[in-house]
Amino acid sequence: MNIKEQYQIFTGNNAGFDFQQRDLTDQLNWNGLDKATAMPDLKAFQRLYRLYPYTDAAFAAFDSGYRSAHDIASRPGSAFIAQMAPVFETSLPEGMDGSRVAQLMWSGARSVSYQVNLAAAGLLPNRPNAAEAEHFSGLPKFHEGMPTWDTLFGPGHAAGASARPLANPAGLLYDLS
Fold this sequence. Notes:
Blueprint: H1 3-13, H2 35-51, H3 55-63, H4 69-73, H5 77-91, H6 98-123, H7 130-137, H8 149-153, H9 169-176
Helix pairs in contact: 2-3, 3-5, 5-6
């Protein structure tokens, strides 16, 4: 049974269920569904739906193999948009811009993934052991693709205390930190 069929049966059993606000639990009506299969699939659908609250967009992302914000954020934005924009163009109603939907979904995924990683980092001890370091080496690197200080302010920009003068553009950011 595909995700659309599971969704239709589930929403038929649980009229008015709000995928944006409520969590899927055992207490809901799972009649006509194999809960062991349907619950993980519907939770994955829900994670995608919360990134861009339009069911057809979440179905398209699910059918393309995505199951979470981390799945989406682990790809460069340009790669996700290049892959999903044509999919969204064909699966969403006419007039919806597939590229814009893909951009918004990727941006939302990046934000969620970043927040989760920050929360997880706050729980880590000061020095991660080898297993933790190995685990985190596979997570998306949010600083990749960001411009360097040299790119922003040109070569030879000052760092540290010498960057504080307002005449130096890097000094403005230094004072903000």
